[in-house]
Design goal:
This protein is mainly alpha-helical. The protein contains 13 helices and 10 strands.
């Protein structure tokens, strides 16, 4: 990262907070939680959102995917940035909605011809896009957004929700994860349970089984804990009577599963029993830092040193009442697409649910 980019980012952040604070601060000039989100979004937008509205994954050769487009749309709404929201949504519609239904193709590669070579969807991306549209419909009173969200919710319900012995579950994609696709299928990924999105899409469409999906997700998070670390695997088989790590993937808690406690803490304060194993694992290894953990022996395979992962641990600590401040989350700085996204999402969750953890707020 060059000194010039640092200077530019510092200027953007200072400018954003100054403008937002002038409009929103209370009489004693306390910073509002929304100020943190607005300023951080400016930095994120500068580094990862193209002028056309494409959110770029800097760790994957500049590809874009439905997950990233959904994250960008969601944060744009939360930062009240309608112009950027519309740019991201317009690009997404033009480039990812190539399947002929209301689910997005999961990956767009600038180096490939055609740019979409796999039309399978990614269900978490669809959830995020639908959730962003629900919020945008409410914030900006746009009925077309509400209509689009309803269609996405119904397509998810029709094509990626399956019945399992554990209840209704989300397949990660329409193809490749069901009982007919993998020997130990259905295979699920608990980080695809974006609980706040599921809850709001249940309001958008009566056909979307939000309550049942949330019930299953919470139950699986309780049951699908493996090894001495007592943590979920990134990928889980639901073929048998009990959940087990899926055969085709490493049996580890990794960069996918770290989103499980993020979405749980964002969704509700009421699931401390589900969050404690994550906090305990982080406390017992690497001085509270997140890491990739091999589940059979609880061996640390690699560190997650980026500030974005630390922001997730602070969010969980705030939810459990173990931390009263989230200094890393509050001091947002971009590093790379994925950890920076988790950083900003954690900051949003703290601002919405646990604002006492942010400095100088009331």
């Amino acid at each position: 990262m060059t000194s010039g980019s640092v200077t530019l980012k510092t200027m953007l952040l200072a400018s954003s907070i100054a403008v937002s604070s002038a409009a929103q601060a209370t009489a004693d000039n306390a910073v509002q939680p929304a100020d943190y989100v607005a300023g951080s979004w400016m930095l994120y937008r500068h580094d990862y959102v193209s002028p056309e509205g494409r959110v770029t994954d800097t760790r994957a050769n500049g590809i874009s995917h439905s997950e990233g487009q959904g994250y960008g749309m969601l944060i744009a709404v939360l930062a009240d940035d309608q112009k950027t929201f519309e740019r991201i949504w317009d690009w997404t519609k033009a480039n990812l909605y190539v399947r002929g239904d209301s689910l997005a193709a999961w990956r767009w590669d600038p180096a490939a011809t055609p740019h979409v070579t796999d039309t399978n969807n990614a269900t978490d991306g669809d959830l995020l896009i639908g959730w962003a549209l629900v919020k945008a419909a409410h914030v900006w009173q746009n009925h077309e957004y509400a209509k689009d969200a309803n269609q996405i919710a119904e397509a998810i319900a029709d094509k990626t929700v399956v019945d399992t012995p554990f209840g209704k579950a989300l397949l990660p994609g329409e193809k490749g994860f069901g009982a007919k696709d993998q020997p130990d299928g259905p295979v699920v990924n608990l980080s695809y349970w974006v609980y706040p999105a599921i809850a709001e899409l249940g309001v958008a469409s009566s056909r979307f089984p939000a309550d049942e999906l949330i019930k299953t997700g919470l139950s699986l998070t309780r049951k699908a804990r493996f090894g001495p670390a007592d943590l979920p695997a990134d990928w889980i088989s639901l073929k048998g009577n009990t959940p087990v790590p899926a055969n085709a993937y490493p049996a580890q808690f990794g960069h996918d599963a770290i989103r499980v406690p993020l979405y749980l803490a964002w969704y509700s304060r009421d699931h401390a029993d589900l969050l404690m194993p994550f906090a305990d694992a982080w406390r017992d290894t690497n001085k509270g830092a997140a890491s990739v953990i091999e589940l059979a022996t609880a061996t640390t395979l690699s560190q997650m040193p980026d500030a974005g992962y630390r922001a997730v641990t602070e969010l969980v600590g705030c939810s459990l009442g173990r931390e009263t401040a989230a200094p890393t989350a509050a001091a947002f700085e971009t590093t790379d697409y994925y950890p920076s996204t988790l950083h900003l999402l954690s900051l949003v969750a703290i601002a919405e649910r646990y604002p006492r953890c942010l400095p100088d707020t009331q």
